[in-house]
Amino acid sequence: MALTDWLIAIGASTGGTEAIKEVIVRLPAAVPGIVIVQHMPETFTPTFARRLDGLGAVRVVEAQGGERIQPGHAYLAPGHSHMTVKRSGAGWVTELAKSAPVNRHRPAVDVLFHSVAKEVGRQAIGVILTGMGKDGAAGMLAMHRAGAWTIGQDQDSCVVYGMPREAALLGAVDEVVSLDTIAARVLARLRA
Fold it and tell me: Which of 26, 29, 49, 129 is an S-S bond match for 12, by CB 3.0 to 4.6 Å?
């Protein structure tokens, strides 16, 4: 399958800015499109996207909604809106909505992951990183049931072992690995 046939979805909360950075900087430019939800106020998401953009081979932008998801690019949900993906022709586009918070969060990881389960299915790789609470666990279970490959960050490398723990307890996670090996596991899955 081509890079455009795949999508990587990442969700994080407390401690996630550093965790996301660790994953992104280890990925090459030749990687499928990436969609990211990090719980963060809207005043900080543009700066965070710019910071990530300067660190590695993957181009990182704050999603504006309506972008065609391109390989080698990552789209960070803005702090004011939920982000979903929608099938468009042979690929996917981002969509934003200022609807009610989910799990007390907007953007919510569950909203993104549920859309990836529905629109991408087995052509997705889901990654749940450090964070408090359970946001993303149910969405990751939906991805897992849709045939996506799912990865949870392990307890030892998490700042807060909440979200990955909840996903693992639901049986939503195919593998649990340390933060420094997540990018390698994503790439190994793509090669498989």
Answer: 129
